Amino acid sequence: MSALQWHRLGRVDDLKTKPLQQIQAGEVVLALSYRDGEFGAISGRCNHAGGPLGHGHVDADGYVVCPWHHWHFHRLTGQARSGIPAAAPRYDLKIEDGDLFVNLVAATQRINAPHPAHPLTRPITREPGPIRVVGISTSAMNRDFPRYSTSEALLQTALDHAGAAGHQTKLIRLNDLNFRACEGYYSVSADACTWPCTITQMDDTDQLTPVYEALVFWADVVLVSTSIRWGAPAALYSKMIERMNCIQNQVTIRDRVLIRNKVASFIITGGQDNIQAVAGQMMVFFGELGFVFPQFPFIAHSRGWTAEDMEQNVAGVQASTELHEGARALADRCVAMAAGLLAAGEGRAQIERGGRKAHPSP
């Protein structure tokens, strides 16, 4: 390609009416900006995940802000913000007879800031060892004044039973983790929802990583406990699964299944009915991630819509031999299924595509 390859973009008077726009110029995508009487042209593809820079905005300091994940590149130089050794390619412009032209040969090169790979990008392998069971409690409590959670108590019974049988166990309380809510990157573009989660990549203080580590890498069995809140799972449960959309999205846009040979089951308690609806919602979501379920995949307890004597609820769960035995039996069913899946191993055809495209490999 010649060092000069000028391409007409259009009339200056038309182009300067927009402070920022995404333009296809031949095979080159540009983020063309105009401010204070001067045009600027940089690549329209963000260094991070290829977001359309020209669909973002220009901030007060002259940086083009990517609409996907808010990376910044100066509209005239392509340089990232001070201290970040990265840059988007810059393109030379000229004006002739009222027309704006761009040289399609970039004046500068793209520079990607060096950074180590995130730990969650490592290959997914199961280390040798016993069956591993993680319990995730989604009860939201006052940390300064903790109280008894019926769903977490039954979850602890299940974990204690699995541990006594020689399996590895761990409990994750969402209430102990400070993590941001999903910010809807998928709603911007499917490709904007990344693995690891974009928030996890950008925010070292976000504490959802232990959940990702447990579900994707460590556990063979996942037991999730939740209360019922107005006919739906707990708010912390919903906050968690919205952030887990990045796992399911890998299936949707990358044909990459992160969850294989893993079992999920649920413990649901509350002061009102709607158990089946809550269980169904949970099963659909975890099924879409790739989890499988044993026969009778949940246990539940509710005092019903008209029961307002909630002070009796805790005492009832504490004293219920049936509920705690049910939690132990649930753990047994899950562990037995996980053992079977691990024994089958790679000898069986695996699902290479997920969701509605699922089919076994040859």
Verbal overview:
The protein has 362 residues and is α/β, with parallel strands linked by helices. It folds into 2 domains: 6-103, 3-layer Sandwich (Rieske Iron-sulfur Protein), CATH 2.102.10.10; 119-345, Flavodoxin domain (Rossmann fold, 3-Layer(aba) Sandwich), CATH 3.40.50. It contains 10 helices and 17 strands. The strands form 5 sheets. Strands 10, 11, 12, 13, 14 and 15 form a 6-stranded mixed β-sheet that branches. Helix 2 crosses helix 10 (321-344). The chain is elongated and about 85 Å long. Residues 357-362 have low confidence and may be disordered.
| Biggest beta sheet summary | 6 strands, mixed
Number of alpha- plus pi-helical segments = 10
- From the N-terminal CA to the C-terminal CA, the straight-line distance is 44 Å
Overall number of domains: 2
CATH superfamily assignment of the largest domain?
A: Flavodoxin domain
* Shape type: elongated
The top-level CATH class of the largest domain is Alpha Beta
Identify the CATH architecture of the largest domain.
Answer: 3-Layer(aba) Sandwich
